[in-house]
């Protein structure tokens, strides 16, 4: 078996991409914690920055990658629903900070829209 055939086999198995993706996320968590939980260094952002060059270098189309890690995508739904329990347990605290939460969401939404429009304008779209 030559090296090219071995690499083709390794990159075609879903388990490989699940392990690499989870490892990239773990590295993201470590970096996030080492930097004092800096807001711009969220683990998901770090994982993306790690995964993008790996996929480009390995010549893996995003569709193939997504199909390989589809089990992770499947479990995101139940994980999101599971967040309801801690939210419910902290309902009194959420009510206490309801106005700041709404202001933050409103300002964040406006900023997101303005950022998107600004980027599109800068790119001439």
UniProtKB/TrEMBL annotation:
A GO-annotated cellular component: membrane
Top-level taxon in the UniProt lineage: Bacteria
Keywords on record: Hydrolase, Membrane, Transmembrane, Transmembrane helix
Transmembrane domains' residue ranges: 6-27, 39-62, 68-88, 97-123
Gene Ontology molecular function: hydrolase activity
InterPro entries linked: CidB/LrgB
Annotated membrane topology: Multi-pass membrane protein
Tagged with keyword Acyltransferase: no
Localization per Swiss-Prot or TrEMBL: Membrane
Name of this chain's protein: Murein hydrolase effector protein LrgB
Native species: Sulfurospirillum cavolei
Classification of source organism: Bacteria, Pseudomonadati, Campylobacterota, Epsilonproteobacteria, Campylobacterales
């Amino acid at each position: 078996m030559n090296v090219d055939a071995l690499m083709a086999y390794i990159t075609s198995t879903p388990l490989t991409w699940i392990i690499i993706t989870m490892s990239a996320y773990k590295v993201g968590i470590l970096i996030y914690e080492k930097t004092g939980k800096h807001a711009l260094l969220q683990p998901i952002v770090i994982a993306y920055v790690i995964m993008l060059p790996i996929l480009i270098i390995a010549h893996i189309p995003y569709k193939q990658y997504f199909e390989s890690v589809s089990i992770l995508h499947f479990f995101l739904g139940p994980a999101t629903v599971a967040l309801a329990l801690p939210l419910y347990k902290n309902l009194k605290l959420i009510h206490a900070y309801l106005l700041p939460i709404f202001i933050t969401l409103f300002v964040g939404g406006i900023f997101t829209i303005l950022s998107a429009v600004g980027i599109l304008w800068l790119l001439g779209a």
